Amino acid sequence: DQQVKQNSPSLSVQEGRISILNCDYTNSMFDYFLWYKKYPAEGPTFLISISSIKDKNEDGRFTVFLNKSAKHLSLHIVPSQPGDSAVYFCAASFYNQGGKLIFGQGTELSVKP
Amino acid sequence: GAGVSQTPSNKVTEKGKYVELRCDPISGHTALYWYRQSLGQGPEFLIYFQGTGAADDSGLPNDRFFAVRPEGSVSTLKIQRTERGDSAVYLCASSLVGQGVRTDTQYFGPGTRLTVL
After folding, report:
1. What is the predicted pLDDT for the residue at B1?
2. Following CA atoms A22, A61, B26, B55 in sequence, which dihedral angle do they give, to the nearest 10 degrees?
3. B4–A99: do the CB atoms touch at under 8 Å?
4. What CA–CA distance (Å, rounded) separates B75 from B23?
5. What CA–CA distance (Å, rounded) separates A91 from A50?
6. What is residue B107's three-state secondary structure?
7. Is the pLDDT of residue A7 over 80?
8. pLDDT band (50, 70, 90) for residue B2
9. B23-27: average pLDDT
10. Minimal C-alpha gap between A53 and chain B (Å)
11. Which of A1, A58, A54 is nearest to A35 (CA)?
């Protein structure tokens, strides 16, 4: 039972354009959502997060949008840079579940110069 | 400062053997997590330690898997009677506070790639 889903395994974008990565979830008990970025042979690194009481959080070139009614979140990267090429995972957590994260399958972003 | 380190980086073993995977968290971090990542999948939660105690081991797939953190720092994930299906990258993460604090970022190590032949 995949509670967090990233339906696009890969995405290719031109440098300078917007990258939009999508994530859907099924469990309405999730109250905190995160995006992690992973380079080959490295562990995932935290990128940005959003609480379920918000619908948008922005940090520099990265913005996360949350649509609770649709159980959907997205990560926007503007402008995209070649160094952004990596696998992006969205993750979710429940209140009262410690820090346990439930991850999606990942989307591999390739930013072409 | 030093990040989360994991040893070995690669481990190849034969079916039925016992393996131990080690995680050194960031100094001072009280919470420690183990995840497993299979090919083409995201990390899957295994177990979470708050200090020395396992606060949540609901992700351990069966009783062949066991983890310890005896002094509240280094943790060892132990797998008995390994099976080919155990082949995956085992990731460790640590965070400063744990206890479900939402802003408490988990920092991941590079993982141990386990291959069971």
Report:
1. 56
2. -30
3. no
4. 5
5. 11
6. strand
7. yes
8. confident
9. 97
10. 13
11. A58
The model's pLDDT over B62-81, given as tens digits with 9 standing for 90+, comes to 999 999 999 999 999 999 99
Token readout for B100 is: 């479900």
Using CA atoms, how far apart are residues B44 and B88, in angstroms rounded to an integer? 11
| B85 phi, psi to nearest 5 deg | -70, -10
Residue B99 falls in which region: left (phi positive, over 0), alpha (psi -120 to 50) or beta: left
Burial class (CB in 10 A: 0-12, 13-18, 19+), A15: middle
Query: DSSP string covering B53-102, please?
Result: EEEE-TT--STTEEEE-TTSS-EEEEE-S--GGG-EEEEEEEESS-TT-T
CA distance B102 to A60: 21
Radius of gyration of chain A (CA): 13
Query: Tell me: the pLDDT tens digits for A85-94?
Result: 999 999 999 8
Characterize the bridge pairing of strands A107-112 and B88-95.
unpaired
Q: Which of residues 24-83 of B touch A (CB under 8 A)?
A: 31, 33, 35, 40-45, 48, 50, 55-56, 59
DSSP three-state, residue A99: strand
Residue type, B9: S
Report how many Cβ contacts below 8 Å link chain A to chain B.
75
